[in-house]
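Students often ask why we bother encoding 3D structure as a string. The short answer is that it lets us treat folding as translation between two languages. Here is a chain of 209 residues written in the first language.
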Amino acid sequence: MTAIRARAGTDAGGWIEVPILADDAERGRWAGAVVDGIARAHGDRFDAEAAPAIRQVMTEIAGDRDASDLLVLTFLPTTRPIAATARVRLMDPPPLEWWRSRGFSLSRIHTAGAGHGMLATRTLEDDVVGERVVAHQAAFVFVDGDVGVVVYTEPTAAVVFDRAQEGLLEIVGSLTLEYDDGRAFLGERAVDLPGDDADTWNIGSHVVA
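And here it is in the second language, the structure alphabet:
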């Protein structure tokens, strides 16, 4: 596997970087520390009864880390067990038609650190126990030669996705990638994608500004 180092972050509230943890015991201790931090931050507003559920969610997120994940960051907008996760992952870049066939809208982007790329966004709707549920998904794709890196979220409930946008955009905007020999990974401009590069994006409404 290609060795790449990734750096990214955000000052937006609610975001936590998920470290590489060796086993269930480490993941449990880390998740417990996250819950303790949330409890301290919210003081009397924190509902202690929610602690086990939050800890379980964080343990599952830490355990779901793939070998191709360069960075994992998760967003907890409330003191309830609700999270949105952004993964920076190595990938074999699929063709544009792969994204289009799955309902993604595509547009060009550019960042100072990762170079040229593509933003793929889609909105999904489902019926859950008689209620209409709307979810958004975003993927920021950068390709350097035959190596691809994607920053993506799983489909996330619209109300959570909207609150996560600020931090997600800061993560993508701050992203830098480096091969293990010190060379910078810089995304190439996709020749088959129409339109101009954009440095800012409104991913919730799929409008590039």
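Translate back mentally: The first strand starts at residue 4 and ends at 7. Keep this in mind for the problem set.
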